[in-house]
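Running this now, will post back.
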Amino acid sequence: MQLKKINNWFTRVLLICFLALVYIGGWCQNPHQTNPNLKLLVGDTIYHSTHNFNPVVSTDGEKVFYLTVSVANWSGFYEQQIGSIYCVNIDGSNSHEILAGKYNNLAISPDGKKLACQSYKGEYDEPRAESLIVIVDLTQGNVESLWISSKEPIKKLVWSNDGDHLYYLTSNAITRLYLPDSTEEVVLSVNGIVGFDLFSNDSIYLDSTIWYPEIESVNQHYVIGTSDIFSQKFIMREIQKDTLFTLPDSLAPYSFSWVGQPYWLPDGNKIIFSAAEIGGGSPGLDPAEIWILENIFEQIEE
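Update: finished.
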């Protein structure tokens, strides 16, 4: 009789421990129902071997250009992310290197034939911005380097709609670089501006809240971005009403995500962006992948 009681007690303890482990395990995993409109385009979600960022899209929406660096070389800081230029088809096929090196602020020309970025030198953990804009001709394969007056890291680089100018933002000014003869002109002295973009008529959009703001490509009524280079949520501004709102958590690929650098696809209802799972990498590192989000306006809860 005594042995039977002991066995019953031991069985109950095991059952309670098992249920507790199931509960704790489920709580720790914090499962997230992936949005069916989200599609992984580039990245290693298992071993986190590369950090991928700053995606831009060709004018026909068929190709994505982005920057990538191995995690072994990445500094671990989003504000110091530099890498080589890669290209991938929108269906995820044919990923290949365009230009090896250390670059930031990738931008694509309106005709989709050229890329521009700022060149960096130094070690990956202590990168130094060069006073140099690199232009990659995608049709001819030529690479051109243009000296600029700024010695600062560029915050954002944008092509003019005629393709003859590059606008770039530094800590206190927006400067326009005329490509045919490399002449520069400060078009706006600014303080407290974290991001800018250009409308289709090349008028300047400024934002004191949104980093890497990207104006919606069809109607130009909205601008999307984040509250830092990478943040836990997307934010969007309705430009005419000047209303700012946060997008739903379900638009990010993980329960706890870093998201950043969104870029509109030509149809104006999809974005491509960089995203990382918080705690998904080595200690202190959260390497990012490139994701596509479709049907964005159907999912907004204002």
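DSSP finds one helix and 21 strands in the chain. More later if anyone needs it.
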